[in-house]
Amino acid sequence: MPLVPMRQILDEAAKGGYGVGAFNVNNMEQLQAIIQAANDTNSPVIVQASRGALKYSKMIYLKKLMEAAVEEYPHIPLAMHLDHGNGVDTCKMAIDLGFTSVMMDGSLKSDGKSPATFEENVEVTRKVVELAHPLGVTVEGELGCLGGIEDGHGAGLEGDAVNEHLTDPGQAEEFVKLTGVDALAVAIGTSHGAYKSGRKDPKTGEILPPALAMDRIHEIHKRMPNCHMVMHGSSSVPKELVDIINQYGGKMPGTFGIAVEQIQDGIKHGVRKINVDTDSRLAITGAIRKVFFETPEKFDMRDYLKPAREAAYAVYVARCKAFGQAGHAGDYTPITLDDMKKVYGY
Ligand SMILES: [Zn+2]
Prior knowledge:
Blueprint: H1 6-16, E1 20-24, H2 28-41, E2 45-49, H3 51-57, H4 59-72, E3 78-85, H5 88-97, E4 101-104, H6 118-132, E5 138-143, H7 160-164, H8 169-179, E6 183-186, E7 199-200, E8 207-208, H9 214-223, E9 228-231, H10 239-247, H11 260-268, E10 271-276, H12 278-294, H13 301-323, H14 337-343
Parallel strand pairs: 1-2, 1-10, 2-3, 3-4, 4-5, 5-6, 6-9, 9-10
Antiparallel strand pairs: 7-8
Helix pairs in contact: 2-4, 2-13, 3-4, 5-6, 8-9, 10-12, 12-13
The chain binds zinc ion.
């Protein structure tokens, strides 16, 4: 079975009323953990590579790894997605290599730092749609800006700036109409990474988890019931995973994530793709630290990468169940990019 267009996975998720985890991949162990979890929970799955991942592993290696995953488990619908493309050229490169979906993040200028204007965003996103749809490739756009550190994901707003760049529901409607995107990443106060931009408790000055503007998702869903929304920066940053890291010599103070319950509320209101990256990084780092700490004489990489892969697997299984995609891999017949072209009218 070929890789499927992400649009099909999202359309089916909308029909079934569930969300689908989009898991970031950087190397073989991570991808093996993802596909194993998808197989064991019978889940359709989205695997995505950020620009940072492409730089680290090279696009061709990631592509071949994903092809291997599809060959090993041919009954699992898998979409191969470019996360945070920063221009038409990057998106085109991914499409040429056979990615079935690309994100054009036009919310930021091509430097990946400064917020772009609405018009600039529409223009560059529409260009990517015009390039992708005739080939059957899905396009995700983004309106509003996310927070977080610059780590190859692109977005880099901090503190109050995050809340000044939330997605405006009216603008979202216009954006989808003008660009023709298949999926819309919304900014509702989430940030990338483990150190999410929090809010200050007015009384104690303590930094609390971000208050998510879920009402924006509700409003967008009301205006556009068929729009597939994407939540970025949606790792839950479980305390038990951070604790393992810190227990074995790590130093990760003051982390917090997005509660699974909030994501589930989003799924009830049109969120179909949920990006999770940090949680698997935490699981992997904790597992490796534990081996290094407990058995410092070990030097065979398999001794620490195997438990790392198992720890990541447990995270993916938990997310597939929580988002509702578990059990749905066999609901539909996967289509090809060629089939998808016809759906777009080409
Ligand atoms: Zn993102």
